[in-house]
Amino acid sequence: MNDTSKPRLLALDTLRGFDMFWIIGGDLFFKVLGKETNWVWADLFARQMDHAEWEGFYAYDLIFPLFMFISGVAIPYALFSQLEKGKTTKELYPKILKRAFILIVLGIIYNGGLSFQFDTLRIASVLGQIGIAYAIAAFIGIHFKNFKTLLFWVIGILVGYAVLQLVVPVPNFGAGNLTPDGSINSYLDQLLLPGKLYGTVFDPEGILCIISASAITLMGTLAGIILRSHFFSPYKKVQLFIITGIVLIGLALLLENVYPIIKSIWTSTFNLLTGGISFILLALFYLVIDVWKYQKWTFIFRVIGLNAIAIYMAVAMIHFQATSTFIFEGIASLFGNFKPIILILGLLIVEWLFLYFLYKKKIFIKV
User: Fold this and answer.
1) Considering the chain, what is the average pLDDT of its residues?
2) Quick one: pLDDT at residue 4?
């Protein structure tokens, strides 16, 4: 499959911003909206704004894997293009490793690392998983650029991971135990992962979860290769993504009864389901934004997507809610029972204006 360099897709930054929107307060807005109103549709949305307790899937469970899928889509644009300009794979190593290292450090800081309470510090983190899984996918990607070879890597990781979870016995629990206490993820996290575990006996960003997450990152890389290719027309690309998405979702649902969909230990079925949805979302955003050129509305999300890591760290460091209350409390009081909804809307406005300021100053914090 021949690639050609193309300008960065608006759909990619927009989809990333759409994904981050739910993290920085979009979820909270719909939770409060569902609680404070009797609107059926709002209540349905609100119920989807939580993670599944263990088995199962809610819309909010998609946010993290979608972000990793998007980071994989960027690999052909950011790295393959460098190889096409004459750089060697070894020359890209420092860039990949630097990104992983910075994200690991930022993840530890996000978890409270600056308090220096190392005995209770959680080392595993969302950002750390993004960094390491991206590095795994990137190293595989730059060494095996061929589409079919990368597809075999995805299949190999998913199948190998399933074998680990379903066949390899865990001391005192046996094989195929997918409970919080008995999974092989829990066993290895307790044995090898330093620091506090998020789930006490397991960590959703633990050792094996990172390896599993590299599979959905590589799915994104496959999508990125197709997007850069001149072999397919734009509509053919959309068709391929939608068909792929439907197949992956169908396969996940078909296997669910024997191999449950569990985000906390990133089962291969979880990857199949979220990878399928990610392909379909990418198809829709690409079709509307880059093919049909309906782009004016994308600015709202692109401002968020262009500084995704910045806003993720900022919400942990800056009290945006206090600013929202200071500015909007008087106005919100005029709306009676809708006051909490107005304040959450104010929070989103304050966060967006912060990002818009960075955008206008051309400050883009990238890792």
Assistant:
1) 94
2) 44
Kindly report the number of other CB atoms within 10 A of residue 256's CB atom: 18
Handedness of CA 281, 283, 289, 293 (dihedral sign): negative
The Cα–Cα gap between 310 and 188 comes to: 32
pLDDT less than 50: residues of the chain: 2-5
pLDDT tens per residue, range 261-303 = 999 999 999 999 999 999 999 999 999 999 999 999 999 999 9
Residues 325, 326, 329, CA angle at the centre, nearest 5°? 55
Count the Cβ atoms, other than its own, within 10 Å of residue 322: 11
Between CA 341 and CA 347 the distance in angstroms is 10
- Compute CA 57 distance to the chain's CA centroid, rounded to the nearest angstrom: 15
Distance CA 157, CA 143 (A): 16
Question: pTM of the entire structure?
Answer: 0.95
> Mind giving me the DSSP string for 32-60?
HHHHH---HHHHHHHHTSS--SSBS--GG
**Token pair in block for residue 166:** 């379903």
**CA 195, CA 124: separation in Å to the nearest integer?**
8
